[in-house]
Amino acid sequence: MSVIVSNLTKIYGDQKAVDNISFEAKKGEILGFLGPNGAGKTTTMKMITCFIPQSEGKISVCGYDVEEQPMEVRRRIGYLPEHNPLYLDMYVKEYLLFVAGLHKVQNKMAAVSEMIERTGLTREQHKLVGSLSKGYRQRVGLAQAMLHNPDVLILDEPTSGLDPNQLIEIRKLIRELGEEKTVIFSSHIMQEVQALCDRVIIINQGSMVANDTIATLKSNVSKEKQVTVTFLRKVDEKQLKACAPISSVKNLGENNYLITTLSMEDIRPAIFYFAVKHENVLLEMHQKVSTIEDVFQEVTNYTEA
Fold it and tell me: pTM of the prediction?
């Protein structure tokens, strides 16, 4: 495994910002790291990248312990923090050459030119970093994180501030990187997590509350399934409920019905045959599909006000 976290805890005074979490991330995997604001995501990332020490537990990166061999860990990690720290009074190419020098990258000019092209910074390379939009500053942050070709990438909200076209490009780049590196990726954009991540970890109030593939988490989020149906004419709700293993039928008005079932059986064919049997017309039928948002809300105990 590229990253192994064991019984990790971080304590600030009386508060446990991170409470005894354990997980692993392997090469060729994009791991989504999710949680509400203040859950401990950024704190965990900072401990993995040697920015702050852990209170308890162990972290190893590519076989190196973060406490005992921090320089070896830093050589193998590329890190884009949530608040992207850049030298605003340097030019983009100048800044990346400076970063390449810090990492002692061989053939700095070639490495910087390649990274400028990969992150779409060709037209901006001779501009001051401080003159760039937030989206292009994020690109510069990604470029510096990847410049020394690290084995592990820690990306904390990497697509913050990107426009839709930039999002497509950076997602494509992250997918490519995920094929050859270990990527730990934090985001509040659930569609992005679903599009990019192989596996998801969710932490809440410092504790890990989920760790699995998105497909598995979605299948376990709720045993209750709902189908919304629109008929041409009003139906007898008792007859509709009796046509399949249906828990409840709710009239939403204008011949629209919300049907709930706890059965693993797909009840939609039965609803279709019900309409045929009663010489009604089925205008619309939609089965609600669980999303990563549903998973997130359930495991973090979110309730609407």
Answer: 0.79
